[in-house]
Amino acid sequence: MIRLLHVLIVEDSENDLKLLLEDLRQRGYEAVYERVQNAAELTAALDRHAWDVVLSDYVLPQFSGSEALKLLREKGLDVPFIVISGACGEEAAVDMMKAGANDYIVKTNLSRLVPAIERELEVAQTRRARAHAEAAMQFLAAIVESTEDAICGKTLDGTIISWNKAAERIFGYTAEEIIGHSVSILFPIDRRDELIDVMERIKRGQRVGLYETVRLRKDGHFIPVSVTVSPVPDTSGKIVGGSAISRDITLRKRDEAERFKLIEELTESLKQVKTLSGLLPICASCKRIRDDQGYWQQVETYVAEHTHADFTHGICPDCLDKINNPVKTAA
To answer: Looking at the domain covering 3-134, what would its CATH class be?
Structure first.
């Protein structure tokens, strides 16, 4: 099966170029290539395209393999660089390898070329994968350090092995103070059974979903938290520890308590409220009300006894008009 190979070739000889391409073709590679012969052409080619490998002669009329290698490394490109030369002596080859070349091949013996390319491509892929993994780990570590939730890693025997900034703030212990100690230091005495249960579930590979509990701060105060605990496997899938994410819910608990207190106060107040209901006998003449025991009372007295309302006295606009204009009223 023909495999594509993107090759940047630093070479001044047309014949040597053809030999390289023919050797690659015979070994199953179709080269997508560009030939360059000086620094400007090499720079432009590197900026224009992503290459799998750079194959470079050691000596060119206006350029050299060492200059090409330096230019490539200055750009920070992780591309295998293989020297192919007939004029490169052993000492020069060693110097090139020290400078960062991945291999050197003698032009009169190209049998090592394809194996060298394949080896360097595999090494480069592994190196990139490792760099990607390290970058991902650094990014994850940054997230862990910047989160507002306490994140604690522990072994299966409960020994704390990681402790983020939020954990320091919430529980009061610095990482130096608590790493290497048992996580039981965070559990109140009456919560030790909870610790045993959580650790047993982690050992079985079970995740302990979000639940609310209480933890013990360094200063001895209890702190309400919501917690999620997850098992941590190694690369083979074996459970080697657990991670706990804890959120301080002190403010939420305080708000809940205040809300419940307000509800209780309102409920109690409602029990004390007196209401008027049913039919109320009222005199059509004097407007007094007969109470449930048969006594006739002024409206103000009756309402005051049956509600929490207080009366003030005044004159409505109609009555005021009658007082001020008695003649008009009589007419």
So the answer is: alpha beta
Contact 240, 156 (CB under 8 A): yes
- What is the chain's percent helix, strand, coil content, to nearest 5? 45, 25, 30
Superfamily of domain 147-252: PAS domain (3.30.450.20)
Residue 297 main-chain phi, psi, to 5 deg: -130, 155
Residues of the chain with CATH 3.40.50.2300: 3-134
| Interval 282-315: pLDDT, tens | 777 777 877 777 778 887 777 777 666 666 766 7
> Model pTM greater than 0.70?
no
Whole-number Å distance between alpha carbons of 275 and 230? 57
Q: Give the CA distances from residue 241 to residues 13, 49, 76, in Å, rounded to whole numbers and listed in that order.
A: 61, 45, 39
Q: Residue 59 and residue 46: Cα distance in Å, rounded? A: 20
- pLDDT beneath 50: ranges in the chain: none
